[in-house]
Amino acid sequence: AYPKGEKTPTKISFFRGNAELMSILLKNLFGAYNPASQKAGTLRRLFLYAVFGAAGTALNVELFLLLAEKCGVHYLLANLIAWIFSVAFAFATNKSWVFGSSSWTLPTVAKEIAQFTLARIATCAFDMGYMALAVSVFGWNKAISKIIANAVVIAANYALSRLGIFKPSKY
């Protein structure tokens, strides 16, 4: 037993220890905590997410610029069309290669599509709001504004996908 009235010895600070505990509890709540494979797949997952994220961002930005700059489509409509194509690409790559969700049963796929779409709608709302504010209100360059918006969207999408949309195969 520790002496009464004295500080309990520990190697982890109160805030860091509690933050790590909350992180583990939240991951466990969403079914994403597996201590045996937690570290092994992290670098691979981040690498694949970066590769496919870059490809999805390139698709999004290039399609946006093609529609908005070359075809004369209003920038918000061009942004929406580019978003739809990049979300379809992201679902396919994230499901199979990044997060390893290999179940193709109808209930699993339906749930993943619904969660993925809702998460992407939330980040699309940010993207659209940011673009409207940056271009229409502040008069910033469309391409630079789009790249900034995509950086935020990519980080948010990874977090949302990792926290519970895709469940890796158990086999």
What does this structure look like?
The N and C termini lie far apart (44 Å). The longest helix is centred in the C-terminal third of the chain and has 32 residues, at 106-137. The protein is 73% helix and 0% strand. Helix 2 packs antiparallel against helix 3, helix 2 packs antiparallel against helix 5 and helix 4 runs antiparallel to helix 5 (142-165). The mean pLDDT is 83. It has 5 helices and no strands. The chain is globular. It has 171 residues and is mainly α. The chain has helices at residues 14-29, 42-70, 75-98, 106-137, 142-165.
Task: Write a short abstract of this structure.
This protein is mostly helical and 171 residues long. The protein has helices at 14-29, 42-70, 75-98, 106-137, 142-165.
Query: How many strands, which pairing sense, and closed or not: the largest β-sheet?
Result: none
How much helical structure, as a percent, in the residues?
Answer: over 70%
Order of helices and strands: HHHHH
Number of helices: 5
Radius of gyration computed on alpha carbons? 20 Å
Binned strand content:
under 5%
- The number of distinct β-strands equals 0
Shape: globular
Rounded to the nearest angstrom, the distance between the terminal CA atoms is 44 Å
Low-confidence runs of at least 5 consecutive residues: none
What is the residue-averaged pLDDT? 83
Structural class: mainly alpha
Question: Top keywords for this entry?
Answer:
171 residues; mainly alpha
Topology:
Elements: H1 14-29, H2 42-70, H3 75-98, H4 106-137, H5 142-165
